[in-house]
């Protein structure tokens, strides 16, 4: 398995862990007789614990190496997937999803660190963009797989498929030839202190925390899309999978465009343009998202713009650090997903018009990093 494919598979863990069972959420809700806000805990708490475990795996990998951490994390993920498959109540499912999250975090955290370890400069920016093209295939394919499983079997079998997927990643980890890098020495407190060291880097902290807002509109869509499409608009699980895949296509085409633009444009220019796109698409969603077509098209435009922005924003953040890359990668992914978890919980409440709420979230997602980018540019000019 090539390094590129291996990193891509690791980066795909969050999407494969959630999108495959999204079509089953209304079924689980109806079978168990629970409200959306309760069934969505299996999504929200996954991302909450996933985010916190990212903070463990990053510095741990900086100390003992990437490969041992991946082996342990993926083994935990497989165990969590089996527990999900055996669950017959929402609380057992939520607990099993937390175990899944604890394992999935290792793959996600170290995919970014390995990109930094194995590639440099413009090559890394291109690799991140190519990964950004491939990763959206998971949201396109995963719900379709989930909907096909639901046609012939119960939702529990979706998690059996996830365990099989993780077994492939385990095989790749066993075969992986880990690159050399300078490991952290000393006690566990020295490892923890690396967070202070990384967070004291002002350019990293500013870009990391503000750029992480870009995804909150998408996470709102992720948690609310099944309810909006299936229960509000009345489409079938299979139609929902196709519509969700159309939305994921926006990510893929946006990331592909980014890989082309980074040849001739600076990262900051690409990011600035894509943030304007996020805001404009969100305004359109606010006013036009009340129908299936209006919601699908405007969300496509939003996720397209996020697809353009995400690879260059990750590259810009990683460019601010030279050491403690695993720790920095964990913080980067943590902030993105913890804000996403909050957005998912927010959209789960009983809003009268959820598409409009997602539109408002998207406007915030574009404005905050745009303002931060402006101040970062002013700060750089003052230094020069």
Automatic annotation (TrEMBL):
Q: Which ranges does the record mark as transmembrane?
A: 33-57, 69-92, 98-115, 127-149, 155-174, 195-220, 240-258, 270-288, 294-313, 325-346, 358-376
Q: Which Pfam families match?
A: MFS_1
Alphabetical UniProt keywords: Cell membrane, Membrane, Transmembrane, Transmembrane helix, Transport
Q: Where in the cell is it found?
A: Cell membrane
**What are the GO MF terms of this UniProt record?**
xenobiotic transmembrane transporter activity
Q: Is Transmembrane tagged as a keyword?
A: yes
**Membrane topology designation:** Multi-pass membrane protein
Q: Name one GO biological process term.
A: xenobiotic detoxification by transmembrane export across the plasma membrane
Q: Chief location of this protein?
A: membrane
Q: Which GO terms describe its cellular component?
A: plasma membrane
Q: Which residues form the Major facilitator superfamily (MFS) profile domain?
A: 3-380
Homology family = Belongs to the major facilitator superfamily. Bcr/CmlA family.
Query: What is the protein name for this chain?
Result: Multidrug transporter CflA
Organism per entry = Halodesulfovibrio spirochaetisodalis
Q: What is the lineage of its organism?
A: Bacteria, Pseudomonadati, Thermodesulfobacteriota, Desulfovibrionia, Desulfovibrionales
């Amino acid at each position: 398995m090539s390094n590129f494919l291996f990193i891509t598979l690791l980066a795909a863990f969050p999407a494969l862990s959630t999108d495959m069972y999204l079509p089953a959420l209304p079924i689980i809700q109806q079978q168990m007789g629970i409200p959306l806000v309760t069934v969505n805990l299996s999504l929200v708490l996954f991302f909450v614990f996933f985010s916190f475990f990212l903070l463990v795996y990053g510095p741990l990998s900086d100390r003992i190496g990437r490969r041992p951490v991946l082996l342990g994390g993926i083994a935990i993920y497989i165990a969590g997937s089996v527990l999900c498959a055996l669950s017959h109540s929402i609380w057992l499912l939520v607990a099993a999803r937390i175990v899944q999250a604890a394992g999935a975090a290792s793959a996600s955290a170290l995919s970014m660190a390995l990109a930094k370890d194995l590639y440099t400069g413009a090559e890394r920016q291109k690799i991140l963009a190519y990964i950004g093209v491939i990763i959206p295939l998971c949201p396109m394919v995963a719900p379709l797989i989930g909907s096909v499983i639901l046609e012939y079997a119960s939702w529990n079998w979706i998690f059996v498929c996830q365990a099989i997927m993780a077994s492939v990643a385990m095989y790749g980890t066993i075969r992986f030839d880990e690159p050399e890098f300078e490991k952290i020495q000393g006690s566990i407190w020295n490892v923890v202190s690396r967070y202070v060291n990384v967070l004291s880097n002002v350019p990293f902290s500013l870009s990391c925390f503000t750029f992480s807002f870009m995804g909150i509109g998408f996470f709102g869509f992720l948690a609310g899309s099944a309810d909006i499409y299936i229960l509000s608009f009345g489409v079938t699980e299979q139609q929902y999978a196709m519509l969700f895949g159309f939305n994921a296509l926006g990510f893929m085409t946006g990331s592909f465009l980014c890989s082309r633009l980074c040849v001739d444009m600076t990262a900051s220019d690409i990011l600035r343009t894509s943030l304007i796109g996020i805001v404009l698409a969100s305004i359109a969603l606010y006013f036009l998202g009340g129908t299936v077509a209006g919601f699908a098209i405007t969300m496509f435009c939003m996720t397209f713009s996020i697809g353009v922005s995400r690879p260059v924003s990750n590259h810009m953040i990683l460019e601010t650090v030279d050491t403690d890359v695993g720790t920095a990668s964990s913080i980067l992914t943590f902030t993105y997903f913890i804000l996403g978890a909050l957005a998912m919980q927010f959209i789960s409440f009983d809003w009268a018009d959820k598409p409009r709420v997602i539109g408002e979230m998207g406007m915030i997602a574009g404005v905050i990093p745009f303002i931060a980018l402006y101040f970062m540019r002013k700060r750089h000019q003052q230094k020069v």
